[in-house]
Amino acid sequence: MGCRVESGSERKTELEVHDSLMNTQTDIPEKLEIMRVGNRISGDFNGDGIIEYACLVKTKQGLGNPVEEGTSDVFEILFSNSEIPAIPVDCCEFLLVYEGDLNGNGSDEFTMFQDGLNGCSKMVKTFTFNNDVWKELYDPFLCSVGCGVEVTDEEYLNWVVLENDTVYYRLPDLNEHLLNEEGDRIIFNRLLKIKADIN
Ligand SMILES: [Ca+2]
Ligand SMILES: [Ca+2]
Q: For the chain, does the N or the C end have fewer beta carbons within 10 angstroms?
């Protein structure tokens, strides 16, 4: 089973091809596409030595307006290895970022950046897989970078980092102006580097 996608598309076919590759080989398939930032990322998230995909998908279409007694869309992070449990997530816009093995447990972590309802802040959560369950690596935090501000893939990849066996994440310094002159980009080195309290 691959990461099921909400609508029939070329992506699905592509995923199924990769799944069949992964089922028949014990090593990383040569053609596996390495993806680090996006709605689908690759990594060895369960530490079995085989690369799989994590995909963010809408698994249930909501009905009507959630504010007026309708039901919301349901999103999950699914894995191309179906033995890895899905992670339910709530509304609405997300990005997944591959982190590598941050805590030295032999499996890759990943971070989810979830846009707040106002689009001006992001909830940041890093997930780690241990003893067949997903846990948050540290307490999730809300990060306000400004409304409509673009963050590059490279900046997302550097948001959470491992340095000298210590995990750090970034937060805006409330005493410092974070944005460029146009106000549409962050100045990355003005972010504070905070030591993560790993649970
Ligand atoms: Ca794996
Ligand atoms: Ca790990």
A: C
